[in-house]
Amino acid sequence: MDKIKVGIIGTGFIGPVHVEAVRRQPDTEVVALSEINAELARKKADELGIEKAYGDYKELLADKEIDVIHICTPNHLHYEIAKEAVLSGKHVVCEKPLAMNTTEGKELTELAKKNNVICAMHLNCRAYPLIQQVKEMVARGDLGTIFAVNGSYQQDWLFKETDYSWRLEKQFSGESRAIADIGTHWFDTIETVTGLKTEKVCADFATFYKTRKKPLKPVETYSGKTLEPSDYEDVPIDTEDYATVLIKFNNGAHGSFTVNQVAAGRKNRLYFEIYGSKCAVAFDSEEPNQLWIGNRDGNNEIMMKDPSLLYPEVREYNSYPGGHTEGFADASKHTIRKIYEAIRAGKAADTDYPQFADGYRELALCEAIVKSAEKEAWVKIED
């Protein structure tokens, strides 16, 4: 079988995650990457063991050897690169958000439908084994009618005034930061697992650091590096550190969600509770191999991640037997696995992987949430 040849565009925090996930697939090979200049591209390619390095993504798109493009750049570049990649006949795997707004997102979604290529999103949180177990439990009616969904996605990587990232700046990240960056993962996970659609939202935003100290030297996301006081400049911040969103779902269920990027001690915690008429479940991504099951008339349960205990439909999302921890990297692996299965099969309409349409859905949710926070009122999601 011929190997699928892959090119990675952007090598910040998430780029190497994509490289690793692709390398864990059979018959695939990462053959090239691109960065903002040739020197950085060559440095990153050498670090990652990749043969070709391009200082311009257009050169990578022109490489006829490459079958699949992974877009791992800052947000403001996604639309342009994705559009060019699809038109060049490449399959595309894009980091969220798909674009900077729903207008761009709608164009890319329609473009994906017209072209015979796979257009996918790296919405990997839905691929945790126990999240897939919850999805199957809901589908089988184990939870009964869903009454309420509550949860959060919290991190502390922007906890200090001196913590800085391009994500803080609207020209690079878009109108929303915390909701768009990690809130989208929560909403995608909940809608995928429950089969429900968010109909209305009522949001409250807060920016705790009105001014942050921007490094005058580069500091990579999650790197933990520190600089001297003279190495910073004061910059005003107009993106949200925190948001709470009230939710109304299309089946009449209600919910609430909090996102916070200045939550001390929370390194990367996606959490949800789903309350049904038969039982409840709760999942914590910092303890991804345990699922809490709540009962009224019996003992509560802790279900451990073990293929022998999970529903048969879920076992493909397990790589190891019970007692062998699987986490973030494995969720990415299985997300990429489903995408590459679709590429192999030529099944662009396969619903088992996150598609551009899912990316567009997240853009619509973000725009409604931002509008709600501005108006201090309920806003309907417009698809």
From TrEMBL:
Keywords, sorted A to Z: Oxidoreductase
Domain GFO/IDH/MocA-like oxidoreductase intervals: 131-279
Annotated Gfo/Idh/MocA-like oxidoreductase N-terminal domain residues: 4-121
InterPro entries noted in UniProt: Gfo/Idh/MocA-like_OxRdtase_N (IPR000683), Gfo/Idh/MocA_oxidrdct_glycsds (IPR050463), GFO_IDH_MocA-like_dom (IPR055170), NAD(P)-bd_dom_sf (IPR036291)
One matching Pfam family: GFO_IDH_MocA_C3
Molecular-function annotations in GO: nucleotide binding; oxidoreductase activity
Superkingdom of this protein's organism: Bacteria
Keyword field contains Oxidoreductase: yes
Protein's name according to its UniProt entry: Gfo/Idh/MocA family oxidoreductase
The species this protein was found in: Mediterraneibacter hominis
